[in-house]
Design a protein that fits this description.
The chain has about 110 residues and is mainly alpha-helical. The protein has helices at about 10-25, 30-40, 50-60, 65-70, 75-80, 90-100. One of its GO terms (molecular function) is DNA binding.
Length: about 110
């Protein structure tokens, strides 16, 4: 599930902080804290063909190498860059990590 429609808000930050305090006091379980953590994840960016191509150029990656890093096929990367298809799920998350954290996070 992509959370691009709703980003972090002061309300979510306050809820997460309160949940963390309650967790430290053992008033909520580890499972409940994991649920609060999931609600407060940073939204994942959407990637169109131009953005993927720019990302590939930034790290001087071929379509084949990017496909290998994302565990997909070079044909899929070509379709993304031609805007015939868009990455979703794990590929979108990995592209977001590549953009935000750099190539070393995928190696």
């Amino acid at each position: 599930m992509t959370r691009t429609a709703r980003g972090k808000t002061p309300l979510l930050d306050a809820i997460h902080e309160t949940a963390g305090d309650l967790h430290r006091l053992s008033l909520i379980s580890d499972t409940e804290m994991q649920q609060y953590n999931a609600l407060c994840l940073t939204p994942v960016s959407d990637f169109d063909g131009d953005k993927i191509r720019l990302l590939r150029d930034r790290y001087q990656l071929s379509q084949t190498v990017l496909a290998s890093l994302l565990n997909t096929s070079p044909a899929t990367v070509r379709r993304w860059e031609a805007d015939n298809q868009h990455p979703n799920g794990s590929a979108q998350k990995l592209l977001d990590l590549l953009e935000r954290k750099g190539l070393e996070t995928l190696l």
